[in-house]
């Protein structure tokens, strides 16, 4: 179906940047620069400087940024890693695949880790905490870093949804031992396929991830240091991402503008909870504009009929996917979020008219 208001618009996104992108791709292809060449190194350098870390390691997915961060940090069999239940499954799968035990806790009203739940979940086996900066908002990192020092655990940030998000002026992915980003096409800094980046200030983590991503091989000596993987960020993707990185600040501003338009249009409707949580120290970048209502399923259907495309992340708590064997949990906020959230159209291509029409439809829904 074609929507009056699409959730995102990848072809329009490309056409806006066509000349720059085509030039970057043609450059790679005509020079034969496909694997680990200057385009990858340039992107890594520019991305590290954007995030404010010493190193950035280009990978083929956000998942691998998480998995290699954990592995490089020495997280393994028998260790516990605390994360939230309200996240994309990859945050949890990365923990499981490195042999560790995911310990799931609840989130707060801003959809991020509820720091009051953190201390009670810490045990002598807690090796790491993996906060997820969901929807473009950074977690309460002052509190988390303070608790991490007291209890001596590693912090690995899942910043897949928060590229450019800030907390006290500091950028997501620069707080912990490592930061993990996704360049999946519908992430804010998305490629034309899968991709991810690991950021860190720690030279050992950067080196280990750099070896692990390419079969464990030190490319200078030819020595294999680990049984590694094949999970490099392709040169062509890196070249595209490097072009897009220059536009990222403008896209973030546009998203914040769209969020403000939604806020103005939707703020006086009953039974509608908007994602504006205040507090000066947060700079939210709205990977998703998530609203919350008890009438979620009806609203979803109504908007669909009106030609407004929305998404629901996620319809049931992750532990309810029984084959994942995550055990049974009682996390009330996560459970009600699954029944109440819906994400409105949001991208750099979303126009003021798209927002006006969406707001108008939501107004009609709550009037009837
Ligand atoms: C997208 C995403 C990931 C995984 O990224 P991929 O590049 O798809 O592997 C991890 N965590 C969160 C919160 C995400 O949204």
TrEMBL record:
Q: Which SUPFAM superfamilies match?
A: PLP-dependent transferases
Q: Which InterPro entries match?
A: DegT/StrS_aminotransferase, PyrdxlP-dep_Trfase, PyrdxlP-dep_Trfase_major, PyrdxlP-dep_Trfase_small
Leader sequence range is: none
Q: Which GO terms describe its biological process?
A: polysaccharide biosynthetic process
UniProt keyword annotations, A-Z: Pyridoxal phosphate
Keyword Ribonucleoprotein assigned: no
List GO molecular-function terms, semicolon-separated: pyridoxal phosphate binding; transaminase activity
Q: Which family does it belong to?
A: Belongs to the DegT/DnrJ/EryC1 family.
Recorded protein name is: DegT/DnrJ/EryC1/StrS family aminotransferase
Organism field: marine sediment metagenome
Upper taxonomic lineage: unclassified sequences, metagenomes, ecological metagenomes
